[in-house]
Design brief:
With 245 residues, this protein is mainly beta. The protein has a 5-stranded mixed barrel with strand order 10-11-12-14-13. Strand 7 and strand 8 form a beta hairpin.
């Protein structure tokens, strides 16, 4: 049976970091890198019908073809970013920030009744996602994250995956052994975890710090699909000038 972890944001260090980010963002500390061109950057609202991409910068490709703000992204597509690049986009009722040097596969979701579909596979890199209320999976080369309508931040490399359940419920397991698992019930970045690829490790799902994402990003992408996070995010703070690398 999976271990169940409940709680709020862990530790004074993590909360101090989050508050520092809020102050820096409010002060405009995250200006665009000189020489970096972006497409988009409008005040976020629900993305219009027929649009997939809210904002992108640098070298972003969809199915191997260079993307523009008008490029559609659908289930079955592969989205890839390269150095100093990012893309913020929507697929159906899910929304994402895919950071630099990342690759995401969006499998077709037509499955038999009762079968859990895969929302996306993060083949490499870093992604923040907010998912519609349903049971679905996120996969990496070394982890499976079973989500139930939630916000999740994931980083993956050959040695491990990092998972922060920002809010909601997720079942974490190792990709090669679903018997190694843990259920996270989170209201605010409760229990970030590393999921280790090393089969010899005595514990392959271990506590991790809160890193590389924040509430303003979650507010932005929830807004793109007409939702809000389940807690208050200061309206005076904006990430419209950040590179999201």
């Amino acid at each position: 049976m999976a271990n169940i972890i409940r709680g709020g944001l862990k530790g004074d260090v993590d909360e101090s970091r989050r508050q520092m980010l809020l102050m820096m963002l409010a002060a405009g500390a995250f200006a665009l890198t000189p020489g970096c061109t972006t497409t988009g950057g409008p005040t976020p609202t629900r993305l219009p019908a027929g649009r997939s991409i809210h904002q992108l910068a640098g070298d972003v490709r969809v199915n191997g073809v260079a993307a523009t703000i008008a490029t559609p992204i659908n289930p079955g597509d592969v989205v890839e970013t390269f150095d100093k690049s990012f893309v913020i986009f929507v697929v159906e009722e899910d929304a994402f920030i895919l950071r630099a040097n990342s690759k995401m596969t969006l499998p077709n979701r037509a499955v038999a009744p009762g079968v859990v579909s895969t929302a996306f596979a993060l083949d490499k890199g870093k992604a923040l996602s907010v998912m519609a209320s349903r049971r679905t999976d996120i996969s990496t080369p070394n982890a499976v994250i079973g989500v139930r309508g939630t916000g999740v931040y994931v980083e993956t490399d050959p040695e491990q995956s990092y998972v922060c359940v920002c809010y909601g419920v997720s079942d974490l397991s190792t990709a090669d052994n679903p018997g190694i698992n843990e259920t996270i019930v989170s209201d605010h970045h409760s229990a970030p975890r590393y999921i280790l690829a090393d089969k010899s490790a005595s514990n392959r799902i271990v506590p991790a710090p809160f890193v590389n994402h924040d509430d303003q990003e979650l507010l932005l992408i929830e807004t793109l699909v007409g939702r809000t996070p389940p807690y208050v995010v200061p309206k005076s703070v904006t990430r419209s000038r950040t590179t999201y690398f």
